[in-house]
Amino acid sequence: MPKMRFIKITTDVLLALLLLATLAYPWTGRHIHTWVVYAWAFVVLLHAVWNRGWYASLWRGSYSPRCILTVVLALLLWTAAVGALASGVVLAHFRHAVGSALWWRQLHIGSAYWLLVLCGLHAGLHLEAWAAPLRQKAFFNKIKKILALAAWAAAAGGLWACWRLHIGQVLWFSASFSADGGTWYYLALQTAGVFWLCAFAAHILTRRVLCK
Length: 212
Known about the structure:
By secondary structure, the chain is mainly alpha-helical. It contains 9 helices and no strands.
């Protein structure tokens, strides 16, 4: 695998892990949460710089359904990121100046989980490209059925996680926090389940519809 491609894939994986870590605020506390957010924002900027060619390509060529969907997701991603960061700054530094912090907290949590969903969908659109080097390996044909079963099982786990996290209320900005308690890795498993469910759904959509 070319070095630059490896770096880009590593960056994408790091983005997903850092996003999951930001959602574990009740277990990490404000100080660690703040530094995780800073790290996530820095990696987002790296991701944007390394993929600047994609932004430039938007001004030329035709727009396929997949391209349009990717652009829409990118716009929504930046919107959710701005919402999460702006509301986070208000809660951290101007809480007493805005009166009741409930609305800002709902906005912050909702934006963060929209980021989780949208990042999952975005990742799913590129899952085929990431898996391409693996498909070239001789052992892939022997394990592809196992991988497919694991993917469907993980997607089912993601549906369960949506129910446990009350994801509908959170995405509708009507919940101040969605976790049901438990340990930090329990929340990580649930949020990872939601992320994979969205990625898997986008991957299936890409293969069955957008690439026809």
